[in-house]
């Protein structure tokens, strides 16, 4: 339901003095349908010369570029190919401009195959992107500077640096969460309502509480997995708090996440059994990225909990599963406009930190 309801949220940001449309990552662009207009931000990583090869040195032409989310990317499967029409070749073609290798650019065009690979054609604009130092005072979504210190890292080093980036933020009280969720989870088709995570229902923002047919505050990382309750910190971190039907929330309880089980009568797109919960397809990736965030944000320093993702269900203590399933859900349900908008609102209006796995989905594979 969410995918059908989502509208394209409009943002602008200033880059080298030019007003531009908000961009999406290469990962997201590769999952857009052919024929759709896209605005993609990525690093120049080479020149495609065939269906299976991208030159990354000794460039032989100015006719196309390969873009990736990682400036050090070497796998063609993680690249999107950009056809350069004549007006862009002199400035961005790598044969004439080899120094642009590794540069971050924004490309506006049409999502269509190129060399029988995910590509962008009919390019209408190419702009070099400069770091804004991570600031978002203008409401923008450029985050290059925000993650600059994590560039080139992988594994435990990347996870540790992302923790450092997102660690310090404003903490809300549990009562303040009500108002925050009315904003972060607003129905893009009806500003009077919020969209409920598991059922996908659109319900009045003010029908909240603890009674049947109202919505309440779901801890996606169940609060008993670490016993953090509703105290400030993990208990009120709205990156993993979402509005849900009271009874559906109760059915989920503190179950781990995994595939399988019996359809839930009240929300049959969700399934559950004695030790796991499977949300509807439209939010599987959302759930996974919230869990990845929590395991990165809460690492045990400064007297906080060390939350960890286990690769099994039936967990206890500060663990939640199941890692392999969450990774699969992350791939099957890519980041969309609703998540990106929610991430921006949390950053700009409430906590001052971001979910890295929404901004950079590739970080999941780099870490786990």
TrEMBL record:
Keyword Zinc-finger set for record: no
Keyword vocabulary terms for this entry: Endonuclease, Hydrolase, Nuclease, Signal
Span of the signal peptide: 1-21
InterPro entries per UniProt: Endonuclease-I, His-Me_finger_sf, YhcR_N
Top-level lineage group: Bacteria
Pfam families in UniProt: DUF6359, Endonuclease_1
GO MF annotation list: endonuclease activity; hydrolase activity
UniProt keyword annotation of Transmembrane present: no
Official protein name in the record: Endonuclease
């Amino acid at each position: 339901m969410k995918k059908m309801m989502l509208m394209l949220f409009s943002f602008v940001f200033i880059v080298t003095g030019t007003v531009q449309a908000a961009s999406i990552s290469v990962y997201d662009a590769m999952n857009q349908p052919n024929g759709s207009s896209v605005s993609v931000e990525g690093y120049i990583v080479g020149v495609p010369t065939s269906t299976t090869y991208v030159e990354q040195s000794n460039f032989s032409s100015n006719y196309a570029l390969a873009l990736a989310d990682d400036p050090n990317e070497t796998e063609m499967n993680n690249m999107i190919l950009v056809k350069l029409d004549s007006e862009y070749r002199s400035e961005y073609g790598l044969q004439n401009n080899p120094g642009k290798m590794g540069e971050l650019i924004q490309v506006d065009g049409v999502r269509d195959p190129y060399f029988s690979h995910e590509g962008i054609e009919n390019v209408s604009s190419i702009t070099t992107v400069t770091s804004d130092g991570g600031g978002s005072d203008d409401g923008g979504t450029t985050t290059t500077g925000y993650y600059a210190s994590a560039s080139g890292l992988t594994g435990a080093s990347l996870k540790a640096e992302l923790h450092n980036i997102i660690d310090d933020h404003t903490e809300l009280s549990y009562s303040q969460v009500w108002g925050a969720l009315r904003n972060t989870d607003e129905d893009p088709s009806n500003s009077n309502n919020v969209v409920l995570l598991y059922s996908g229902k659109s319900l009045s923002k003010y029908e909240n509480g603890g009674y049947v047919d109202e919505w309440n505050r779901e801890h996606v990382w169940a609060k008993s997995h670490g016993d953090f309750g509703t105290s400030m910190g993990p208990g009120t971190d709205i990156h993993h708090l979402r509005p849900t039907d009271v009874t559906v929330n109760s059915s989920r309880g503190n179950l781990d996440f995994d595939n399988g089980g019996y359809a839930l009568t009240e929300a049959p797109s969700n399934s559950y059994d004695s030790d796991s919960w499977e949300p509807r397809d439209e939010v599987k990736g959302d759930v996974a990225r919230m869990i990845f965030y929590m395991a990165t944000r809460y690492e045990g320093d400064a007297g906080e909990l060390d939350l960890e993702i286990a690769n099994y269900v039936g967990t206890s203590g500060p663990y939640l599963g199941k890692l392999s399933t969450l990774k699969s859900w992350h791939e099957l349900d890519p980041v969309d406009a609703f998540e990106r908008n929610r991430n921006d609102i949390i950053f700009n209006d409430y906590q001052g930190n971001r979910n890295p796995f929404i901004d950079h989905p590739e970080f999941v594979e780099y870490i786990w």
